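Feature request disguised as a bug report, sorry. It would help if multi-protein outputs had a clear separator. Right now it looks like this:
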Amino acid sequence: MKELFSTLNTRPDGVCNFIDASKWFGKGARIVYRQYATLFFIFAIDASESELGILDLIQARAPRLAPHGGTVERWAGRRVGSGEGSGEGRVRGGLGLG
C-alpha cells in the first residue's frame, strides 16, 4: 500500500485518474482515484466495473464528507454510498474495496 500511495501522491495534477494496478491486485486490476485537498479516494476495480462510473461515484460522494468532518480515519470501514450502510463497496484505510 505504501508503494501505491507513493505512486499516486507523486503524480502531477491534471493527469488521468486511472492507473494499471496489476502489480498490486493482479491481472486486469485498475485503480480509480481522486484527490480532494489531502484526502485520496482510491478504488481498486476489475474489468467488470466502469472507470468513469467509479470516478463519478467519487465525485458525487466525496465532497459530502467535508461538512461532516470526514477524514480517512473517520470513514474507514464504512460502506460507500449515502449514509452509513448503503452501497456495495467497503472503505478500509482510505482504500475503497468494491
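(second protein starts here, but nothing in the output says so)
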Amino acid sequence: MKKRIYLFTAALCSATFVLLASTTFAQKAPAYAQKPTGMAKAEAISQQLGLTPQQKVKVLPILRDEAPKVQAIKNSNSLTRMQKAQQIRAIHQQTDPQMKAILTPEQYQKLQAIRKQTIKEATQTLAR
C-alpha cells in the first residue's frame, strides 16, 4: 500500500513538473523572436543615439510615451499607408521641439533617420 502511494505521489510530482515546464517555455519565445516593447525600443534608440546619462533621463520618458502610439498606428488595419505615415509624422512633430532642445545636432540627425525608417516600416507592411 505504501509503495503504491509513493509511486502515485512520484508520478503526480513528475507530471506537475513536466506540465509546468512545458507551459513556461511555450509562453515565452526566445529574445530574438520577441517583438520589442515600447521600453525596449526606447532603450534601443537611446543606445543608437549615444545619449549621456543626463540626456537619457530626459529623452527616455518622451520615447516611452511615443512608442505605444506609433505601434498602435503601425498595427492598425483601418488606416491606409498614407494615413499611417501622416499620423506617425504628427506624433513625431509633437515631440520634436523637446527632442531638439535635448539632443546635439548629430544626435538629432540620427533621430530623424530613425524616425524616417519607422515611417517607412509602417507604410511598407502589407495591408492586413
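Even a blank line would do. Unrelated, but nice: The chain has two domains: 2-31, 36-124.
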